[in-house]
Amino acid sequence: MSNPYDALGTSAFWRTAVAEKGPLGLEHLWTPKFHVRPEHKIVTAGSCFAQHIGQALVERGYSWLDAEPAPPWVVGEDAKALNYGVFSCRTGNIYTPRMLLQWLRLAFEGGDTELWEAEGRWFDPLRPVIEPNGFAHSDELQSARQATLASIRNAVTEADVFIFTLGLTEAWRHSGTDFEYALCPGTIVGAEFDEAVHCFHNASFAQLRDDLEAAIALMREKNSALKILLTVSPVPLVASASGAHVLAATSHSKSLLRAVAGELAGAAEAIDYFPSYEIITHPVFRGMFFAPNMRAVVPEGVATVMRHFFEDQRRVFGEVVQSSPGKRRKKNKVRSESDVMCEEELLNAFAK
């Protein structure tokens, strides 16, 4: 007597797909819905791990879209320190779906937010560390923000693929306006923490889903051909304000983000999920891709993630014509000069 399991392939069974393969022999972890080609304009945004994805695409000769390049006189490490070339737009890390939605609404619908001033310098609460010493004037800050909002509009309307890495559920918001901050006020220069104004928010599944759905809908309203590729950062929380142990808080946060990404990807052909999170964090891999602090992802882990990305793209869609080796070497040199930038790391300073 036949049953539905008779027709399933080896990848559907733990023994044949995992136990007999071992962690380094796993294959076919992803069946991509759409082809990501080298000539496609690809935007990366989100949590720290998105920087690895962007860099790997550049190294392979893919057309990573740098929508807000540094001025000609700002180069190398100086450009990176000012958050140029880190993501497709100079937003800094975007850890939550709400932050992504805020940026998109400001870019396409306009609006204002508070600005921070400290000791005669001005800081942008959307991205307070892009100018380490702050801006000299509020007008300078506003001008820089408008440049980034213009780059977001261009990136969304020009892109073929938008890769977004979900990072956190925990955030801090203004109690009156519901504005979400990039970092908790008071943990960085620019603003003092005020418990009457600044409130902790740990987003629920429904809130995360609704915000991400709204963000994707807004992008596809402006660019109906845009494909969305979601990933979840495997990097644990630096700290949790939830009251839970940071390990349990990390599992809670990542589980919700993974579930949201899976639900949205399962509901639309233009949205896909790539399992970079599973490749780094699953017990099958025995923690081998984490540095001794059990948080940072080692280069071998990043390489394994991207190997699965490119191999599964090739398996489903066939070989692609890569850019010339000379072009790839040049881009690789530019993108590998410095380490990943992660604003959340600043919370380490408050560990007792």
Question: How would you summarize what this structure contains?
Answer:
The protein has 352 residues and is α/β, with parallel strands linked by helices. The chain is built from ten helices and ten strands. The N and C termini lie far apart (63 Å).
Describe the structure.
This is GSCFA family protein. Residues 41-309 form the GSCFA domain. The chain has 10 helices and 10 strands. It is an alpha/beta fold and 352 residues long. The protein has one domain. It has a 5-stranded parallel β-sheet, with helices on both faces. A 3-stranded antiparallel β-sheet has the order 7-6-8, with helices on one face. Helix 4 packs across helix 5 (138-158) and helix 6 crosses helix 7. The protein is globular, with a radius of gyration of 20 Å. The termini are far apart.
Please specify the SSE layout and strand pairing.
Elements: H1 14-19, E1 41-46, H2 50-59, E2 63-64, H3 76-81, H4 97-109, E3 116-118, E4 121-123, H5 138-158, E5 161-166, E6 170-174, E7 180-181, E8 198-202, H6 205-222, E9 227-232, H7 246-267, E10 271-273, H8 276-281, H9 299-317, H10 325-335
Parallel strand pairs: 1-2, 1-5, 5-9, 9-10
Antiparallel strand pairs: 3-4, 6-7, 6-8
Helix pairs in contact: 4-5, 4-6, 6-7
